[in-house]
Structure formats: C-alpha cells, structure tokens
Amino acid sequence: MAKNAAEITSLASLDQKLAIAKRCSHEGVMAGAKAAVMASIATAIPTLASARMVPWVRANLNPTAQALIVSTVAGMAYFIVADKTVLATARRNSFNQSQLH
C-alpha cells in the first residue's frame, strides 16, 4: 500500500514539474517573440533609411542583404531573450521548490 501511495505522489510531482516546465518555456517563447518584433523594427528603420540615403549602402546592399540584416538581428534577439527568460524562470522555480521542502 505504501508503494502505491509513493508512486501516486511521485506521479503528481512529475506532472507538476512538467506543468512548470511548459509554463517556463511558454514564457520564454513569448518574451523572445516580443524581443524579435522590437529588434526587427529597431533594425529595419535605419537599414531601409540608409539604403535610400547613403550612396555606398545603395550601391552595395541589395534588398536581400537588407532583409538578411534585419532577420539576423531578429533571430538573435529571439534566441537570446528566450534563453535568458527560460533560465531565469527555471532558477526562480528552483528556489521556490527548495523553499517548499
């Protein structure tokens, strides 16, 4: 009987940890997406403006290069912010778990 109770407790704990991990990754995705949008806007405006006004940029950066600049910055912002958010949330949850025990 004790073994069944321990298994049930273990499964409940595992389900709780899985729910926390899903919430943690969801927070990371949302924060990363917001950062990617902001980085795209912050990069696209000066890139497109300089492509219209600066002669060297006009001559050397075609539209593909401009899109590559914007998408690279957006991708980097997404992964950096998502990673930092997931790690911070996991650390916070780790401290919360240790305080409960």
From TrEMBL:
Origin: domain of life: Eukaryota
Q: Which PANTHER family match?
A: EARLY NODULIN-93
- Swiss-Prot/TrEMBL keywords: Membrane, Transmembrane, Transmembrane helix
- InterPro entries in alphabetical order: Enod93
What protein name does the entry list? Early nodulin-93-like
Q: Where exactly are the transmembrane stretches of this chain?
A: 31-51, 63-82
Keyword Transmembrane present in the record's keywords: the answer is: yes
Key word Membrane present in the record? yes
